[in-house]
Design brief:
110 residues; mainly alpha; elongated
């Protein structure tokens, strides 16, 4: 699967926007405000990640560093899995708004 087809799989709204406008569409979509569901989901994801990556204070500096690194390597994928879908949802909504505000939608379907 090519990177281009992966983007279109995640963001099918790109099919309604000319390829030359994709960068601007993503820029504008990233400025879209989060809605209540997205904010609540992201808050839950942050709380869950912080609860799952808690570590006790190690008695030695080496133990502390090892616990910190283990938590870090666990937290990054957790954040991607728990927060990523809400970021994608917001971007897709922003791309739909961008498409509606421009005539691309009508040009594609005419």
């Amino acid at each position: 699967m090519t990177p281009r087809s992966l983007w279109h799989l995640v963001y099918p709204e790109l099919d309604q926007i000319p390829e030359t406008e994709h960068r601007e569409a993503f820029r504008r979509a990233s400025l879209c405000d989060f809605d209540g569901i997205e904010l609540a989901g992201m808050a839950f994801g942050l709380i869950a990640t912080s609860a799952l990556t808690r570590y006790a204070v190690a008695p030695t500096a080496v133990g502390y560093v090892l616990e910190f690194l283990a938590s870090l390597f666990l937290a990054v994928p957790l954040l991607a899995v728990l927060l990523g879908p809400f970021l994608v949802r917001r971007t897709r909504r922003g791309l739909r708004q961008y498409s509606r505000r421009h005539l691309f939608h009508e040009e594609v379907h005419s």
